TrEMBL record:
<keyword id="KW-0645">Protease</keyword>
<comment type="similarity">
    <text>Belongs to the peptidase M13 family.</text>
</comment>
<keyword id="KW-0479">Metal-binding</keyword>
<dbReference type="GO" id="GO:0016485">
    <property type="term" value="P:protein processing"/>
</dbReference>
<dbReference type="InterPro" id="IPR008753">
    <property type="entry name" value="Peptidase_M13_N"/>
</dbReference>
<protein>
    <submittedName>
        <fullName>M13 family peptidase</fullName>
    </submittedName>
</protein>
<feature type="domain" description="Peptidase M13 N-terminal">
    <location>
        <begin position="41"/>
        <end position="417"/>
    </location>
</feature>
<dbReference type="Pfam" id="PF01431">
    <property type="entry name" value="Peptidase_M13"/>
</dbReference>
<dbReference type="InterPro" id="IPR018497">
    <property type="entry name" value="Peptidase_M13_C"/>
</dbReference>
<dbReference type="InterPro" id="IPR024079">
    <property type="entry name" value="MetalloPept_cat_dom_sf"/>
</dbReference>
<dbReference type="Pfam" id="PF05649">
    <property type="entry name" value="Peptidase_M13_N"/>
</dbReference>
<dbReference type="GO" id="GO:0046872">
    <property type="term" value="F:metal ion binding"/>
</dbReference>
<keyword id="KW-0378">Hydrolase</keyword>
<dbReference type="GO" id="GO:0004222">
    <property type="term" value="F:metalloendopeptidase activity"/>
</dbReference>
<feature type="signal peptide">
    <location>
        <begin position="1"/>
        <end position="21"/>
    </location>
</feature>
<keyword id="KW-0732">Signal</keyword>
<dbReference type="InterPro" id="IPR000718">
    <property type="entry name" value="Peptidase_M13"/>
</dbReference>
Length: 680
């Protein structure tokens, strides 16, 4: 243990955040607390009832919470940036010019409605007019320009050596996202399938086909996607990373899947030499794609290509296409009104030129002082997690040393990338249709991606734009990333108390740190390689603890007869529980360093103890209203628990929550000590 203590002191020399204690709440509004629902009965409702009543769902939203408020605020900021660019008359070819031109193209509904499906008719004609001896060429053409039906190939960091890229292959995608929608016969699955059939028919007719053609295409598409779904892994199976690491030589792959033209995919569609080794992520789904290529008729394949193309282009064509998509979204999420055109246009432009916009965003909205504060916060949380690891009763010293090594090596990115993306080769032209501009952008992005093959992995790249209201952890880089967009109230406010900031952004930071040690992240070492650094005994103890967490969440009935999926959401639930506990420790340590007694009268903030404020703002961050349809959709397809469960289930594992609010046996929020789960 002395060795461990020496290691942690050397590895995590913490920085003290010099911010004076606040006397008034900034992010919290106690007037909105529910006096009729005590903390001991339902903590989430006690904190958020007033907020929920003052922020009713509008027809545009399937759910609306603090994240959406920040998203709306961010959208308004980005909208001002983008619309102001056009007024500056930017020079043609510059990033500013391309942002303004693409946004104008997206907003020009008159032109888009006049063109209708014209921008994709040439491609549709190519599909229709392909002769039987040209079907192999059509397969390669589609892979090169529009997508990867039946089988997909692409490179990413090698999980065994994350410094280099490896080529991965897997089966074709299913557009409904989850296999259960195709295979189950409950009412929800049937309703979604019927809505999807209506969507396909409507879009095919919008593209200029007859009702008879549309009926045939619907039948063929549903048959193909149902077969693909039947080979797709379950949600729970998809979390098994080692099971997806199936190394095969190219000769083995060709023998296993003889109907797939592997050399042509790599040489012609991707423009690279055929790799000698491949990683087949899901053998059964690739086999299903191979089977389909060997048995489908030309007509069936053409119909599948037609739908794939129409679906991809639909949001870039006339209003009739976007209206059909919206009708389908109403069934999936319960949303009642389509988002305004400017929001949809802005989202598309950010998808193409996000870092270009982000560079302008951080210059205007993200001061260096915010970055400095959060950097200090991160180090305090890193130190807190290190302390937790040292004192874990269920982990051996050998594994603890490896865990501390990984924690110490974790890279932190805050605000924005050190180098910005170069868009000089991207061709955006006002003379082109909106679909042509977006397709050109997709091909540019694809070219940029393919150019990385054979080169070392660039770990400086970001997977989110600076203006994004989110954060993420990347196990292959052993990094955690916090874009500037999320560094706002109620998560972070430079004028707020430490208690509020630690209960907000502090928990977010702790959450992302913990992802490095969740059921998936723990399988990677300090360099981001999939290496087993655990003893068998420690791995067994970890598994036992996680099963307890699975049971806690799976016991929650989110709608009558529908229960949360604690196994599918396990990684996020581990991160929620760990992040909350780590942030609490870091907060208490920070106050101790400042000489603040959190139990004293002087430390109170508008009459609340600082520890109460910490928990209250944590719950406040997850304030949310949501439709039943969206609850069903998220419970099936989202790896995160619903907002209420991210609060009420997680906090009932922390001893300090019970002592802070005086919750005892017999209270609804109480959980017996023997049933509490503490992992990190």
């Amino acid at each position: 243990m002395n060795l461990l203590r020496t290691f942690i002191i050397a590895a995590f020399a913490s920085s003290v955040i010099a911010v004076s204690a606040q006397e008034h709440l900034k992010s919290l509004a106690p007037s909105g607390f529910d006096a009729d629902t005590p903390v001991s009965k339902d903590f989430y409702r006690h904190v958020n009832k007033g907020w929920m009543e003052s922020h009713p769902l509008t027809p545009e939203y399937a759910s609306y919470g603090q994240y959406k408020i920040l998203s709306d605020s961010g959208n308004n900021r980005v909208r001002r940036i983008v619309t102001n660019l056009a007024k500056t008359n930017p020079e043609k070819g510059t990033t500013a010019y391309k942002i303004a031109a693409l946004y104008e193209s997206a907003m020009d509904s008159t032109r888009r409605n006049q063109l209708g499906a014209a921008p994709i008719r040439e491609a549709l004609s190519k599909i229709e007019n392909t002769t039987p001896d040209g079907m192999d060429d059509l397969f390669i053409w589609f892979h090169k320009y529009y997508g990867s039906p039946f089988v997909k190939a692409g490179h990413m960091a090698n999980v065994a050596d994350s410094r280099e890229y490896a080529m991965y292959v897997n089966g074709g995608a299913i557009r409904l996202g989850d296999r259960d929608y195709y295979l189950n016969n409950d009412k929800r699955s049937k309703d979604v399938r019927e809505a999807y059939k209506k969507l396909i028919a409507a879009q095919i007719i919008n593209a200029g086909y007859s009702k008879k053609d549309a009926a045939r295409i619907v039948k063929n598409v549903m048959n193909i996607e149902t077969l693909l779904a039947d080979s797709t892994w379950t949600r729970e199976e998809s979390r098994n990373i080692p099971a997806m690491y199936n190394i095969r030589s190219i000769s083995q792959v060709k023998e296993m899947f003889p109907n797939i033209p592997w050399d042509r995919i790599f040489n012609e569609a991707m423009g690279i030499d055929t790799p000698e080794m491949l990683i087949v992520t899901t053998i059964n789904t690739v086999k299903q794609g191979d089977n389909l290529l060997g048995r489908l008729t030309d007509r069936e394949m053409k119909d599948y290509y037609i739908w794939s193309l129409v679906d991809e282009a639909s949001n870039c064509l006339s209003d009739s296409f976007s209206d059909a998509n919206f009708e389908f979204n109403k069934v999936m999420s319960g949303v009642q009104e389509q988002a305004p055109r400017w929001k949809r246009a802005l989202g598309a432009v950010e998808g193409v030129l996000g870092e270009g916009i982000g560079e302008l965003y951080v210059a205007e909205y993200f001061p260096q002082s915010s970055k400095d504060y959060v950097e200090g916060l991160v180090e305090n949380l890193r130190n807190a997690l290190g302390k937790h690891i040292i004192h874990l009763s269920w982990m051996s010293d050998d594994t603890k040393l490896q865990a501390l090594k990984k924690l110490n090596a974790t890279t932190v990115k805050i605000g924005y990338p050190d180098k910005w993306k170069d868009y000089s080769d991207l061709d955006i032209d006002p003379a082109f249709s909106y679909w042509e501009n977006m397709h050109n952008a997709e091909m540019w992005s694809r070219g940029e991606y393919l150019a990385k093959w054979g080169k070392p992995v660039d770990r400086t790249e970001w997977d989110m734009t600076p203006q994004t209201i989110n954060a993420y952890a990347n196990a292959l880089n052993n990094e955690i990333v916090f874009p500037a967009g999320i560094l706002q109230a109620p998560f972070y406010d430079p004028e707020a108390s430490d208690a509020e900031n630690y209960g907000g952004i502090g928990v977010v930071i702790g959450h992302e740190l913990t992802h490095g040690f969740d059921d998936q992240g723990r399988q990677f070492d300090s360099q981001g390689n999939m290496v087993n650094w655990w003893t068998d005994e420690d791995a067994a103890e970890f598994k036992k603890l996680t099963e307890g967490l699975v049971d806690q969440y799976s016991a929650v009935e989110v709608l009558p007869g529908l229960y949360a999926n604690g196994r599918y959401t396990l990684g996020e639930n581990i991160a929620d529980q760990g992040g909350l506990r780590i942030a609490m420790t870091a907060f208490l340590d920070s106050q101790k360093k400042k000489g603040v007694d959190v139990k004293s009268e002087e430390a109170k903030i508008d009459g609340f103890d600082p520890m109460q404020v910490f928990y209250l703002n944590f719950a406040n961050v997850w304030a949310n209203n949501i439709r039943d349809e969206e609850i069903r959709s998220l419970t099936i397809g989202d790896v995160h628990s619903l907002a209420k469960n991210r609060v009420n289930v997680a906090i009932r594992n922390l001893d300090t929550f019970f002592t802070t609010f005086g919750i005892t046996d017999g209270d609804d929020m109480f959980r017996p000590q023997s049933e509490r789960v503490v992992i990190w």
